[in-house]
Amino acid sequence: MVRVGRPSGPAEATAEVVLRAALTLLLEEGGAALTPQRLHQLTSVSRATIYRHWPTPTDVLAALIDVAPDPERPLTGDPVRDVHAEVDALCDRLHEKPVATFLQALVAMAATDPAAVELRQRYVDGLIAPFYRALNGADLPPTEVKDAVAAIVSPLLVDALLLDRPAARVRAHRVVDLHVRPSSARQEADPASSHGRPGRE
Amino acid sequence: MVRVGRPSGPAEATAEVVLRAALTLLLEEGGAALTPQRLHQLTSVSRATIYRHWPTPTDVLAALIDVAPDPERPLTGDPVRDVHAEVDALCDRLHEKPVATFLQALVAMAATDPAAVELRQRYVDGLIAPFYRALNGADLPPTEVKDAVAAIVSPLLVDALLLDRPAARVRAHRVVDLHVRPSSARQEADPASSHGRPGRE
Amino acid sequence: MVRVGRPSGPAEATAEVVLRAALTLLLEEGGAALTPQRLHQLTSVSRATIYRHWPTPTDVLAALIDVAPDPERPLTGDPVRDVHAEVDALCDRLHEKPVATFLQALVAMAATDPAAVELRQRYVDGLIAPFYRALNGADLPPTEVKDAVAAIVSPLLVDALLLDRPAARVRAHRVVDLHVRPSSARQEADPASSHGRPGRE
Amino acid sequence: MVRVGRPSGPAEATAEVVLRAALTLLLEEGGAALTPQRLHQLTSVSRATIYRHWPTPTDVLAALIDVAPDPERPLTGDPVRDVHAEVDALCDRLHEKPVATFLQALVAMAATDPAAVELRQRYVDGLIAPFYRALNGADLPPTEVKDAVAAIVSPLLVDALLLDRPAARVRAHRVVDLHVRPSSARQEADPASSHGRPGRE
DNA sequence: ATTTAACCGAGACGGTACGTCCCGTCTTTAC
DNA sequence: GTAAAGACGGGACGTACCGTCTCGGTTAAAT
């Protein structure tokens, strides 16, 4: 079938100006401010236009998430080292606000819009996935992998979500050491082995 | 100065009928439904009356929290056992909805109302406090206590808040065993020692 | 049952200011201008308030009609004279705009709102009724009464509605003389008998 | 200057399909439905195309009126007979809807669009003209001709426009007899002379 | 067969009004 | 003083249509 007529979707300029304003709004006033009304006021893009392309605030948030994917970090092959790297990366992202704010906004939206539930799911999965990837090389049974990831990541998320405080980076590193030692190494492990990393907290 | 006239505060009947409706609303439609409007519709208590006694939705939520305090569990003196008991208690409360819903509502409200931020803080502290209490008896350094509590509780909260799934009870018990062994016992610990507890998950 | 609380219906001030503005609008811009939006702009009464009390433009028009009822003219007992008086009265009312404008508005609204159809019916009946009342005394058979009223009134309405010109007063008086002579008198009638009336047209 | 390229104006197929839909819309939903939007929905002719050829709803209505002119009836030379024939013709046209609907639509549009005022004028003139033509042969003074036409036609229009009822055909015939007798014949007139016509009402 | 002007469909876009909903405050009345 | 009933201004919501516009692809006459 031959396509005729003007191409569909927002003109590039429109999409850019709206999403840029959306990011600003989100960071400065939180997810509840991502309304068509506020976006219109900030961008002077017509309210109707915004509804056309992003019918719900969830759609705006989804578009925001899509434009800033998390770049993959290269694996060294050493699981312990890789997991520590991921901890640092996640703490950095949580510290630089957008990720923590995205999470807060997703939780708040999920209370209203079922579509946001799924989005929240995918977003959290995206945050956790790198840890599973890093732990792939360690010879741990699946249960221990899951436990380790949960014990490492959850406190960071809780810090960002519930306690409004910077992610507890050094604690996370300690938990990594506790969980990710290969079982064979646990008795002989040198507890100071991970002290070379920069404790940025 | 002598007080004259009708005593202040809502008549008991009013307060009860409103808060009962508020709980129903909260559980069935989430924190965003806790509006004067909805409460009025459900209770046929006048909107003006509701505004008088609970000026903001946060006040309603705070009143709800106050009426259902968490009863303290008696301590046995055995930290390991007490922490396991607390894990079970928290999982039960998260499972029976109110607590998880309170948390979601508090997070959502905190995005809007600063007063809710403080309330959220206090509520989370109330959830965590029993674990610190239980670990009081264990001869662990403060850092390890904090790490342990975080590693135990955070995954449960994340399950309830972010992943909409029942709290991972057995995993939490495993994590307790991993963290709460008294340090002196870690080498000789029998990893099967906690298998007697009922795995209710 | 005891009535409690503030009495229902618009406060007097509100109703007056809105209806006054509605009349101005109607006369200056026609029935299509009787929208909540325009009324709000002119009165700075809130749009919501207007919707509360007059949910449709037809309701506004109905309220307008209710506040300005046509006062009854006294009957002399002489049908011919009374009908001539009614012709003058109707021409005056059509000339002074409100009635003609009401009619136009009612026709236009009736195209959209079924409620306006009934209102239009009642309004037209109200315009015609005085003629039937005046002709009551004449000893004419019912058919001739109807014919006479139609022949007298219709051209006036058509002038106002379709041709945007002042009602043809003198023609209407001629038609009265043609239709309302008592049949016994038609042969002997002095065609100049009605020349004493002031020809205001 | 030599014209080159595709000729201007709508392709025949486009014009026909749009006007056919416009007529349907007009009859079923009234003049207010004659919008570019509705025409587009019914015909799947692009909205832009419709704007190109009929910039306002009034233009659509004008085009509709142009495509269905009233065919002239032949005159017999007998004014009385001819006028009766015209009465029947007008009643038929009013009864078959389009004319009555056109009138209603024209009145409604005239409230908004000044261009429709002129159109309405022309349309009404077109309805009345045949009566003047038929009365041309009668030896009546101009004033009486005007009175007669008004008394005959106006009630029919009022029936269609204001009272939503079928045109009162037999009354119209009676009024013809009353007005159109040549003055010389009025004394000797046989009032039953017109009873031979079929009373279709 | 090419030009060339116009048609035509698809859709973006700003704008405006719609009718609804809830907010928070106020006034009126009854108890 | 408490409470109910309800008016009121305010503001956002989501929808609908308006009129204009920019794209592309198509069509039909004149060269």
UniProtKB/TrEMBL annotation, chains A, B, C, D:
Name by which UniProt lists this protein: AcrR family transcriptional regulator
Sample GO molecular function, one term: DNA binding
Domain HTH tetR-type, residue spans: 12-72
Superkingdom of this protein's organism: Bacteria
InterPro entries: Homeodomain-like_sf, HTH_TetR, Tet_transcr_reg_TetR-rel_C_sf
DNA-binding region of this protein: 35-54
Stretches for region Disordered: 181-201
Keywords: DNA-binding
TM stretches of this protein: none
UniProt-listed SUPFAM superfamilies: Homeodomain-like, Tetracyclin repressor-like, C-terminal domain
